[in-house]
Amino acid sequence: MESQRKAPAFPASTIANPAGVLFRFMNNCSEPIWIKSDPLGGVVMLPSKGTKDFDVGGNGIHGRVEAYRGAAPGSAGSYQAQFTEMNAQKGQALNVNLSHVDWVGLPVEIKGNASGKDCGVTACYQPLAHLLDNCPTQLLDTKENKCHAPNWYCGAHAAEPFCQALMASATNTLNTDPDCATGKGTNFTPNDVFGCAGTFFSGQGGAKNGNACCAKVNRNYQGNATKQTPNDRCAFYKTAPFNVYANWAQTQCPYIYAFAYDDVADQSGFFTCNQGTEMDVTYCPGDP
């Protein structure tokens, strides 16, 4: 909520009358950040505690805005630390997805604005210095300062106990939950479970209720898959086995996407700002 924001206030904009959506970026980190997006002119360096404003014009932004640490993308020492998926155009809805389905590597706040009303805030306010505290050991990347999702790790290390435990839980869900019965007896991989693919995908080639079934397995929700609601959030990740990364990520950064169908029961960092005119993005919003 607006009253719960922790990010610093933006200064007055340098663009008085933008033709399109006004995008404002603040780097509240203690180090420079490089952002990459074609509508923003390619790669732009944000100095520590600096801000930059962009008028993206009538075409808006449709795709990812990526953030890099260490150096500019393509340079030695550079690595992608965060990305945000956006579909934003003036006069239409500003759609934002704050996703950590691949990793957690840089805290960010995104706030949408429209004429006369607040459009919502999605954020991770964990200070950068403590962002990776308690990341599961197998998933910690000290070279790129990330905690990785288990999708690919378990694909290469399927015998790991926490990978095996969730695979067994997925089999049990398909065998016992009538909401997931269309997937019963199918073969699946660790990436299908952790990445909500194959049997656990809702779409062409996936099983009926695949999104809800994948969410149930990752959270180890004890009721029927399609019965998950926002009121059940306190019942998620209570009984092992569950997706240890998703549990950790939701603890560090509540209400972000920690796996592909984290929007089941409205647990994700997606929001829509109808008739939005401005998007404010702050990196390290919880830092001093």
How does this structure look, described?
This protein is α+β, with helices and mostly antiparallel strands and 288 residues long. It folds into two domains: 2-126 and 269-283, Thaumatin; 150-245, no CATH class. Helices cover 17% and strands 27% of the residues. The chain has helices at residues 150-156, 161-176, 190-195, 210-219, 244-252; strands at residues 22-27, 33-37, 42-46, 51-55, 61-69, 79-88, 94-98, 103-104, 108-114, 117-123, 140-141, 146-148, 270-273, 276-283. A six-stranded antiparallel beta sheet has the order 3-2-5-6-7-13, with no helix packed on it. Strands 4-1-14-9-10 form a five-stranded mixed beta sheet, with no helix packed on it. A three-stranded antiparallel beta sheet has the order 8-12-11. The two termini are 21 Å apart. The model has no long low-confidence stretch (mean pLDDT 92).
Helical fraction:
10-25%
Record field, number of beta strands: 14
Low-confidence runs of at least 5 consecutive residues: none
User: What Rg do the Cα atoms give?
Assistant: 20 Å
Quick one: biggest sheet?
6 strands, antiparallel
Mean pLDDT: 92
- Looking at this structure, what is the CATH superfamily of the largest domain? Thaumatin
CATH C-level name of the largest domain: Mainly Beta
How many separate helices? 5
Q: Please give the domain count.
A: 2
Summarize this, please?
The chain is of the alpha+beta class and 288 residues long. Helices cover 17% and strands 27% of the residues.
What labels would you give this structure?
288 residues, alpha+beta, Thaumatin, 2 domains, 6-stranded antiparallel sheet, 5-stranded mixed sheet, 14 strands
